[in-house]
Design a protein that fits this description.
- The protein is α+β, with helices and mostly antiparallel strands.
- It folds into 5 domains: about 1-85 and about 545-570, no CATH class; about 90-210 and about 525-540, Rossmann fold, CATH 3.40.50; about 210-300 and about 515-520, Sandwich (Immunoglobulin-like), CATH 2.60.40; about 305-440, Class I glutamine amidotransferase (GATase) domain (Rossmann fold); about 450-510, Immunoglobulin-like, CATH 2.60.40.
- Helix 1 (about 15-25) runs antiparallel to helix 3 and helix 3 (about 60-75) runs antiparallel to helix 11 (about 550-570).
- The longest helix has 21 residues, at about 550-570.
- The radius of gyration is 40 Å and the shape is elongated.
Length: about 575
């Protein structure tokens, strides 16, 4: 048998009182009289009051005692063959990157684990719910997971979130509470005095004020086999300091630059290295090691493969090739190119040419300026010769004639007869094809950016007909749902993330553990916020419906006692 609310057993103190009342009850034997005047003489023995003596209503006493016991069991929420009501502890731990700061060989995350273990021990918890705060709160353990499994999940926890507001995580904890106004324990490392917590939240900081030197940003540009790396370093400290910044790559000697930092100031460091491989940039180890190490993946400008359909008009082919060659990083191939250009009757992605009766226009031209293909394309003073309207959504038109359109599958139709137009000799021509090339590069599978900061959304491009997934460090994995140009929520933990198509690696992205707010450890420190007092009965009551069978038994016993008493009277 288990009890959901043991305080209900206090009702059993009524049993001795009822038994004592039965012993003190005095029942006079019936006396037959022949006239009412005989009752005028009082019975001195009866007026003396009750005295302890044996009583004769044992059955009634037994029924009332059983009813009191059943009522006490109902109040105590007694269960037979069921688990007892569980003591639930709700904990929100700060998932900020600064929780990895080290003091005396231990991180703030280790201190948070110890604090959770102390809470479980002090409150006698049987189930625990642990939530990690972040831009998107994450459930680490639970809801209502047993203590052993919750502790194991917390041991594998590694905070790596950017600076954020803990309010969403506290709201999630409130939704997972099992009783009204249940206390929520929030464990963080600071910053001191910046948090306004709800009244039911018990806040505590396990951090310490520390000095730290960190990277704030990093860039890498690869061009002609030379990688140019630019990093910004900041010092969060009380006194000036000089620190070395080291750059290393496989097969090359290490480079180091000494940087003089003053409190709160930053310094820019730039080096060039002749390599096409990974470059590592490091600072001396300090309180927070993660923000002093960078791994910069190669970021060469993507080379775009272009193919020309042989049946394309020679004048159009010449002018288009001339415009593409001046852009750089464009290679012409015969087939299997990412960007194909051909006549209207071809299957190319960009189709140039006019069919049917031709008309020349000098304006006005009506364009969708918000479309990326027409960005900064100025057509004033040009002559445009077009034929019948191409299919697709109009992007550029003159009167009732569509000069440029885009189909639902992304095919672009350029309704233009080059030999009878002067568009190719205007400034609009290279700008238009620059937009086409930029869009084609952006639609290539992989990551448009190779370096992102922790907490940033990640752009990624996928294609239909395949299964896509992101694979990160420490076994982290995330499926990619959708096709085309997508934006994936921030990736955690920091490190190298690989884009895989049907299990094969396509591209690599580096998530850098950089956040100026998290690197400033001088704002951390010890503090605590007490939660408002809650109703003790609401806190101790169980989170399951009561067993109403005990109440039904109480009612049955009371009815039986009433029937027995009425029967004796009759």
């Amino acid at each position: 048998m288990s009890f959901g609310f043991p305080l209900g057993l206090l009702a059993l103190v009524a049993v001795p009182a009822v038994v004592a009342a039965y012993f003190l009850r005095r029942k006079q034997p019936p006396r037959l009289v022949s006239a009412l005047f005989l009752w005028r003489t009082p019975n001195q023995r009866a007026e003396a009051g009750p005295r302890f003596e044996r009583f004769s209503r044992e059955a009634s006493l037994a029924l009332e005692t059983l009813a009191l016991i059943a009522a006490a069991l109902f109040l105590a929420d007694a269960r037979c063959g069921e688990a007892a009501s569980r003591t639930h502890v709700l904990v929100v731990v700060d998932g900020s990157l600064s929780m990895l700061a080290t003091t005396g060989g231990r991180t703030a995350a280790d201190a948070a684990r110890d604090a959770v273990a102390a809470l479980v021990r002090d409150e006698g918890a049987s189930v625990v719910t642990v939530i990690e705060s972040g831009p998107r709160p994450r459930l680490l353990a639970g809801p209502q997971l047993d203590v052993a499994r919750a502790t194991a999940a917390l041991e594998a926890w590694r905070p790596a979130q950017p600076a954020h507001d803990p309010t969403p995580a506290l709201a999630l904890a409130k939704e997972l509470s099992t009783v009204p106004k249940q206390r929520v324990h929030f464990i963080t490392d600071g910053p001191v005095g910046e948090l306004a917590l709800p009244p039911e939240v018990q806040g505590r900081s396990v951090g310490a004020r520390l000095e730290n030197v960190a990277f704030l940003s990093a860039q890498r540009r690869d061009e002609a086999g030379v990688a140019t790396v630019t990093v910004r370093v900041a010092g969060f400290m009380d006194a000036p300091r000089s620190v070395p910044v080291r750059f290393s790559a496989q097969g090359l000697p290490e480079q180091a630059q000494q940087v003089a930092l003053t409190p709160g100031a930053t310094a820019l460091v730039r080096v060039g290295m002749k390599t096409a491989g990974l470059i590592e940039v490091t600072l001396p180890d300090d309180a927070l090691v993660e923000d002093g190490r960078l791994r910069l993946q190669p970021s060469p400008p993507p080379t775009l493969e272009v193919s020309m359909v042989p049946t394309l008009d020679p004048s159009a082919q010449t002018t288009i090739s001339r415009a593409l060659l001046v852009m750089g990083e464009v290679t012409f191939v015969e087939k299997d190119a990412h960007l194909s250009i051909g006549p209207p009757s071809s299957v190319a992605r960009v189709r140039v040419g006019a069919t049917g009766p031709l008309q020349s226009f000098v304006g006005p031209f009506f364009a969708q300026k918000t479309h990326p293909l027409l960005d900064d394309v100025q057509l004033g003073g040009v002559v445009w010769t077009a034929g019948v309207n191409p299919p697709g959504q109009p992007l550029l038109s003159a009167g009732g004639v569509v000069l440029m359109s885009e189909a639902d599958d992304g095919v672009v139709h350029l309704n233009l007869e080059v030999s009878r137009s002067n568009v190719q000799r205007s400034v609009a021509w290279p700008v238009l094809w620059g937009n086409v090339v930029r869009r084609a590069r952006a639609s290539r599978e992989g990551f448009p950016r190779r370096l992102v900061h922790v907490g940033e959304d990640v752009p990624v491009v996928t294609s239909p007909g395949a299964s896509w997934a992101l694979e990160g460090p420490e076994g982290a994995s995330r499926p990619v749902l959708g096709v085309g140009a997508l934006t994936v929520p921030p990736l955690s933990p920091p490190g190298a993330w690989h884009l895989r198509r049907d299990g094969k690696r396509v591209d690599t992205l580096e998530v850098l553990a950089l956040d100026a707010h998290e690197s400033d450890l001088t704002t951390r420190g010890a503090w605590s916020v007490d939660a408002a007092k809650t109703d003790a009965l609401a806190t101790l009551s169980g989170d399951r419906p009561r067993a109403w069978a005990w109440a039904a038994l109480v009612l049955a016993l009371m009815l039986a006692d009433f029937w027995l008493t009425a029967r004796r009277r009759s």
